[in-house]
Amino acid sequence: MVLSELTQALLALFSGSHLVYLLGGVLLGLVIGILPGLGGIVGLSLLLPFLYGVEPTSALAMLVGLVAVISTSDTFPSVMMGIPGSSSAQATVMDGFPLAKRGEAARALSAAFSASLIGGVFGAAVLTVVVLAARPLILAFTSAELFMLTVLGLSMVGVLAGGSLPKGLAACGLGLLFGALGAAPATSEFRMVFGVEYLSDGIPLVVIGLAMFAVPEIVDLLRQKRAIAGAAQLGKGWLQGLRDTWRHIGLVLRCSGVGCVVGALPGLGGSVVDWIAYGHVVQSSRDKSQFGKGDIRGVLAPESANNAKEGGALIPTLLFGIPGSGGMAVFLGGMVLIGLEPGPSMVGERLDLTYVIVWSLALANVIGAGVCFLISGWVAKLTTIRYALLAPFMIMVISFAAFQTTRQLGDLVALFVVGLLGIFLKRFGWSRPAFLIGFVLAGNSEVYLYQALQFYSPEFLLRTGVLLIAALTAVSIWLGARKAPGAHAAAGDAGARATHLWPQAAFAAFVVAAFAVGIWDGLQHAFLAAVFPVTVGAVMLLPALWVLWPLALGRTHSAANYDHEVAGEHAGRPGVAGLWYYIWWLFGFLAACLLFGFLIALVGFFVAFLRLEAQASAARIALLTGTGIALICTIAWFLVLSFPAGLLQHYLDLPWPLR
Length: 659
Description:
Blueprint: H1 2-13, H2 16-34, H3 39-47, H4 56-73, H5 75-80, H6 90-101, H7 105-130, H8 134-139, H9 143-154, H10 157-160, H11 165-179, E1 182-183, E2 190-191, H12 205-224, H13 234-247, H14 249-263, H15 269-283, H16 297-320, H17 326-337, H18 351-380, H19 387-403, H20 409-427, H21 432-456, H22 464-482, H23 494-498, H24 501-522, H25 527-552, H26 564-567, H27 579-596, H28 598-612, H29 618-638, H30 647-651
Antiparallel strand pairs: 1-2
Helix pairs in contact: 1-18, 2-3, 2-4, 2-18, 3-4, 3-17, 4-7, 4-16, 4-17, 4-18, 6-7, 6-16, 7-13, 7-14, 7-16, 7-18, 9-21, 9-22, 11-21, 11-24, 11-25, 12-19, 12-20, 12-21, 14-15, 14-16, 15-16, 16-17, 16-18, 19-28, 20-27, 24-25, 27-28, 28-29
């Protein structure tokens, strides 16, 4: 019986119509992945209206093709521009972008695509084997075990803390505090919203990811007044990336396994699996000195994991109708739309269709990686273009991507305000990945803790699964503690840094004040709404004070006293523009959006920036501005989207796309 269904699945998989629809889904997924910040939720939402009336097998081919390759193509912006292509590509920025700045974009892309291919096929293979036996394993994870898994994720902060563990812990705590903004999951009380309606639902993850990584990198590259890389080593880099993948094949397979396991756990997968894989490779490496500076292992680990996680995420989605991620939730809606009911029937009378899905996932990964290899050499050349010409396009894309999350003007305000926080976190050596880990895990950790206490009382800490994960967490912390402190303390001249202590002290005081506000605000609410922010504020106040204390005393020997302006990558470098100069450019664009609306502000920004900063000719300004506006209007038309409106649109009834 099973053999007959497997044969039917193979015949359906390689039928002409199935392959055509699969290729269509792959191509759409590649485009969505290349556009930063959109990701699988937007791509699947865009595809669903076109699936009405389509034969179920063909419709599934498009859905699976799109889901499979977004985690492959989102590597392009992560590596080349330092902009996370999606929430599952944030860790790739850590080492992929430094490789691009060294002129090794093709090497990073090649390694990423080959690792993604292996991870995707590995995930499909695991899904093939366990699809009949996964039910007991998935059901064994209750809210107690899921809470401990979030704690395991937080234990990665020691690895991602950089040269100062107190700064890493405080940055993580700041992320947890930002993650607690909005309605409390237990009581629906609004916390730390300060009367701002936009904050009532919290700040979206896409906005936080772009603000933490894209905005600071854009400002940094603009200040250096050059291209991302001096040269794109195309042929050599392409072959080197393949050799890197083969040399570290054990790491790729291990991280693929991590991706499968984490992806199968509802609510965790896409947003944290890359960081868990990245933390694993740093912890398990003898030489940690190059991580964050362009270590190819920092690309291989998250890229293999985030592709393998799709196979894992399909397990609870198909077997129980429980989506393993936001993208899988939309995928689930697509299955219902075409008349399929997820659940035990998918391994019963619909087993053939289940294996069509599984093997389509593997085939889509092969096709997607192949297409990315074909275009990677050409795309890598973008890193040699003078960045002043690219920056308006990057700002346009990240602003548009941020606006996709809730389609409110508040998305743009949050992008640049939190982006300013990201700029200062980077300048003063506070770990942005630690902040992001805290933000990602804040919601799940609070919900799972609340549920565990409600269902099992504090005795949930004695459950076997909890104890096993606690042991893994202890090992993770021990491995992180072994990491030697960074060289921040020794960098630069102590006398020069002594004159720049007040900006660092002011920023540390801001972090301390943020935790104090979290405690004060939490105490205004009921116990279940207050326990998380008050605990976070009280605990994380200690490392924040640890950072502030030597700064307040004027000491310069501590690793906490680190400023990129005087001791880091900008120290003593001629021709580097002032930080605030480009910050005012960004906030000038934001002010224009608030006054005139997004599209009018974008035209003005393109013209002014290209003329004043890029020194472009009138013809080039017209060409680049027209290209950018045409691109963004085309995308908006397909997404049936109106651009953010400003004050002007409240007084004038303008036609689309100006409204």
